[in-house]
## 1
Amino acid sequence: MDLEFLIKYKMFYISGVQNTLLLAIFAVFFGVILGVVLALMKLSKKKILKAIATAYIEFLRGTPVIVQIYIVYYGLPNVVPFELPDMVWGIVALSLNSGAYVAEIIRAGIQAVDKGQMEAARSIGMPHNMGMRYIVIPQAFKNILPALGNEFIVVVKESAIVSVVGITELMYRADTIRGITYKAFAPLMVAAVIYFIITYTLSRLLGIVERRMSAGD
Amino acid sequence: MRVIKTINLNKHFGQLHVLKGIDTHIKKGEVVVVIGPSGSGKSTFLRCLNLLEQPTGGEIIFEGVSITDPKNDVNLQRQKMGMVFQQFNLFPHMNVTDNVTLGPIKVKKIPKDEAEALAKKLLERVGLPDKAEAYPKQLSGGQKQRVAIARALAMEPDVMLFDEPTSALDPEMVGEVLDVMKDLASKGMTMVIVSHEMGFAKEVADRILFMDDGIIEEEGTPKEIFDNPKSPRTKDFLGKVLY
């Protein structure tokens, strides 16, 4: 495989990686905020909140990401009165999608905490919110954190799809190089290797964090 | 003086009618042991007393206040009712001292050093002064349950509720937990205990409630219940259990 193009176009890859990481970091950050809100709504006793959260999560998990990205990219700018860079729309689309998955991660993490823990908290006179804060959430956190790390890896991979609307992340850059060099294959292999290095590093780091946390058990 | 009074207490779980009108009362300083076959509603009855289960009918009066009144804030009464669970339910992410002091500090808002002094005293009382820094997973079942008793006592409750406190323990650890409970009883604590430990019930109880199929089938002193049961159901049950 002739990799000479790498020397000439390495800046394409570097800026692509930067944008991919930016997309993933912001998407997970806002995804977590959205996910927390959705999870609390879903666990709430208020039927209407529960219904809204459930509908949102089901819809976002039940439709293709690429459709969601097109809807956000071609739909939202019409209702937002000011102009925003393409990257922002990419982050919005990925956050809205990731939020639905994060919500389920958080809900499952909270529900995995033994029911007796809340009962014990209530039995010493703690109101429900205090029991959540001091007893349930700290224990749920241990269930949630590894799954959130996985979600970050998933978003790194999924972010490739925003290249379809012209956001200049790694996949888009690889395609550009293919166009310029008339090489159909090699630029993609390079992109694949870069994606793999990112995700493999992340999953290793995650493994270390998990081991640290279980050492405290 | 009556600390707890229940009036026609009913509990349904969906179609299942678990408590079918319980009328009873617990006097100050009294030790009441609730016995009966599984599924008779004894744990549900106990859990209704501090509203961990919401009764579907009837009324519970605790220290003169109707706690089943929807306007009542049960968190206040729960502080006065210590509860000990079959599965201990210690907080696994906190050490023993923090388990015991959490309620006093966060709920009663007493200063940390005062709460820690109290915890020290209570851990001595349950025989675990050397476990103050240990985490629950480092303790045996019996030790866990004794910490759970200390945690409940730290709120300085007027009543202690015990939900089968020795049922999840290895046999050789039952004694140490019952000893702590006997000590509490001898110091005048008002106690309601759901238990299968008939020997303990006989020795410690002021009154036995025999529950069967959601009602109190028979009640009386240990002597009356164990030596001269009147109801055929009581006779049948006591004939089947070993003690």
## 2
Amino acid sequence: MSEPDLVPDSPVDRLKVDGGNVSSLAETSGEPAAAASYQAKKKGVFFWLAIIWLAIILICVLFANFLPVPEIDERVGDIRQGPSSENLLGTNNLGRSVLSQCIYGARRSMGVAMIATLGGTIMGGTIGLLAGFYRRTIDTVLTSIVNIMLAIPGLVLALALVGFFAPSGGFEDQRFLFFDVSPATNATLWTAIALAILATPAIARVARAQTLVWSDREFVLASRTIGTRNLRIIVRDVLPNVLPAMASFALIGIAALVVVEAALAFFGVGDVTGASWGIAINNGRADLEDYPHMVLFPSLFMFLTILSLNYLADKFVDLSDIREAGV
Amino acid sequence: MAAIVILIVGWIVGIPLSIRLGLAFLVIVAGAMVTNGSYVLKRLATLVPTLLLVTLFTFFLQTKRVTPEVVAIRVLGTGANADAVDKFIVENNLDAPFLQQYLDWLSGAVVGDLGTSFVNNISVSEQIGEAIPISLQLMVYAQLLALVISVPAGVYAAYRASRRGDAVVSTAALGFLSIPNFILATFLVYILALWLDLLPATSYVYLHESVIDHFKHMLLPSVSLAMALSATYMRLLRGDMVSTLQESFITTAKAKGVSPAKVLWGHALRPSSFTLLTVFAVNSGVLIGGALIIEIIFIIPGMGNKIVAAIVGFDFLVLQGAVVVLAVGFVLLNFLIDLLYTALDPRIRNVRA
Amino acid sequence: MAGSGTAHLRGGGALTVEHLTVEFPVGTSGDKVHAVSDVSFDLMKGETLGVVGESGCGKSTTGKAIMRVPPPTSGSVRLGAIDLSTLGADQLRDVRGRLQMIFQDPISSLNPRRTIRDIVAEPLTVRWLDGFPRYPAAQAWDNFTPAMLKLWKNKWLVLLTKIGLGVLLGGVLLYVVASAVGEPDQFGRRDGGAGADLANQIIRGGGLLLAPAAIVGIIGSAIWLLLVFLMIPFKIARSVLVAMEKKEFAKEVDEKVFTALEEVGIPAQVSMTKYPHEFSGGQAQRISIARALVLDPEIIICDEPVSALDVSVQAQVLNLLEDLKASRDISLIFIAHDLAVVKNISDRVVVMYLGKVCEVGQPDLLYSKPRHPYTRALMSAIPVPDPLVDPRSAEEIDGELPSPIHPPSGCRFRTRCARATEICSTAEPEIAEVADGQFVACHHPLDEKDWHLSERSVPVTVSSDLDGLLHSTTPEAPGGVK
């Protein structure tokens, strides 16, 4: 071939083909088409690396206290020590283990981001499904609410919401719903809620766009002619088809919210006393020139986590034959 | 086009930025009215309620977050006596009903008076007026840089789709997408400024003071902001272009013997760039957020540092003003991009009307 | 053409459609798409009724309107003696089992995320779940929701709310303008003077106008919220009940699904746990048919059931439908644009154009002795497998299908009809019997001297290729299934 072919066999290619129907494959090959098309989409080594890294992070989130690392506020040596055999990743400006900061930081950063994304997915998913399925008035009302929420730049909204929910200051216990909690916990919980509100409109948009597409399919019509109730159609027919796109978007959502959570630390909003990746990075910046390890390791944790999430979201799109709807 | 001329001429003649932006806005709206009046009117009709609700919402969040007493004590100091606190509250209209406060604030806001800071008694509009151009500069540089990087990269990746060249570019894009801008900024500062001492690490120089110094100071912030953006743009452009390249008019062009370069840049790029254009607008929200953080890291006296100072100093009118200005700017920008989109792709008119 | 009238109804049919009209609103301008306008026909027990017409003539919409997805704008659909439009939601659910539908796109008709067993069992499952008593909170919800929605859509309330919002917005603007021109005092407050006072009154008035809507809205939402919370314990209790009986039900369903699948020629043993994408289009259509069969329907509406299939597979699916019709005594409504297919399978054919009925009659008559100019044009468009026939002699219809938003006055076909005269634009033709069992809605129907023009469409040879296939009854090889 003298000239490079402009029409490549790319994943997008396959998406287009599969989007139409897969029956052509089934008719020609004796084998079930699913097996054939899944074989074509190899998961690859990076897929597993990303899964492993996220599993490690998840263990950090759930079992930080049980891991064989120093306590979060334990002074383990001199301040600002570089990495050594004693303290694998060195110590910070208070002589605490940077490794512990990273691991306990995962709990806070990822924990908040995951809870917020889960909440945002439930709220946004509900809004999007209802708006996309019922259309008309319900759609108009819900879409305008979503559009107004989207009209405020994300980080600015986060600043306003966290500032509103968790005004900083005071050392007495504060009330969170029915519990008395410390100001730090209160701030963290409200940060999660603010981030969930932040994630809601974006996920609602994706869910609505997908619902619009799927609820036009004939199997939804078929369910209607059987006399299926709307709620059952939404749960059984529409939701399972919308879910892959939402799940893929939720992975990106977690990645985005980890960044916002860290950014809030830069603004000094919410709880800035505990351990999170953002706080660790922000604290280390003062000594960047002489002790870069204090910034490097939390940054690395954060980068690898976000990279894994983005990569998995990409793979997920490839594997489940969906294209991101909306932005 | 006329809008850009107004922006540039106004800058040379020395008209304040807000008036220049306002004029440019009007020119674009007027231009769009000529081509597609009913659609523009419809969008304008939704614009006013949107702006009202956005300002109401942010005003609510800002004023209701703490009681007037807390504001007074924060501003006056913990030692302030009860009389002083009461006086402060009355003077600053903090005891009025919420809607009354909002309407009073709004009345000022429409003529550009966002109130006066409790803390340093400087007009909020004046403070924001100083900070906004700096933030805008940063965002514009970053967007331009992102486009300059992403368009060739995206076209190349689409051209070499699923081959090694694409793999390299796409992987790099995924990598840059995954580096939060503040981390990239931190390490760029460490390597280029602190370690190699090539560029200044922090602070800001006005364009009229020294053009060279200005760009020297803005280079690192712009790059930190642009990399993730360009990765996003590149991925979108690549995706759209790969599907465009499979369309029959491209096959026809190739069959006619049009050179690959001309097929890519002449035939395929334009129809592939609509998603990019939309995201270009939607991304300004991300961009605003990014710019705020980058300003903090590089100690650039833009909106980001104003917001941090206002949060720390409990200067809630400044915070309120900053949030509203950013939100309103964002809404107006989206509105403009929407109009631009209509002008470029007439199909949209019918779909949305 | 495009006629109204009910002269062709025979009475006592299994399904009677009278004056069926379906309109869709377009945008906010108040325009409507007149998809189906005053269409009547009936279907006798054991009969196959073909409905033909070009794309956009409203034939699919008619089929869906009979199924009430969405319900027709007006007109009646009677199943035996039951008028479907008078039924409540629950009664309608009971009746639906007697009337089933098959759709055009076989792949799209099956939910890709459910197994074949679940898809085919769904009608039974829905019915079974309906058998459990509705708990009080859900019943309250069922009764309260339509009432509340009706109240919300009340013309006056909507009008009041719109005026209220306008007044409120105007008041806010007036206040802002009045205050903005005033000079700020030492604390930055602006005095709007009389303008602001007036604006305050206006805002209050606007608020007052909005109050009814707000009260209705708040009370309605509160009751809904309460009902949702009340439903949760009931829902849990019900789920337990359902779970307890599920096993037994599942066994019963498995048997029925198995029988239905085998009946349509799908190897049930291996297919139950598979997903739709593992089947070919023809197999998927068979599964759709199985889904329609599990409820033992009296009537199946087939909406272009074979259009998306390969010709060879088409014949197999058509044979299957014929067999089922015979063995189960089912009546069919067969909607298609493929005239050859319709001719072969139908006992009676309805020709539709732009939402209206043109001609009704036995297929052979329509093909050999069309009375309506549109019917003749349609018939002559069928390709004839005879090298001696010049395909260019086929009669073409000039022009495009007119917009269904603003259909032509009088006879809707007149804009494309060579025989149209003055009367066609002023009066709409009524359906009338022109020959035994042949009805036409036209002011200038064709007669014998016109038929020789369309001689090329020799009726018997029209679909000889398909005839051949129709009698090769081998079921489609189960390619995707081992």
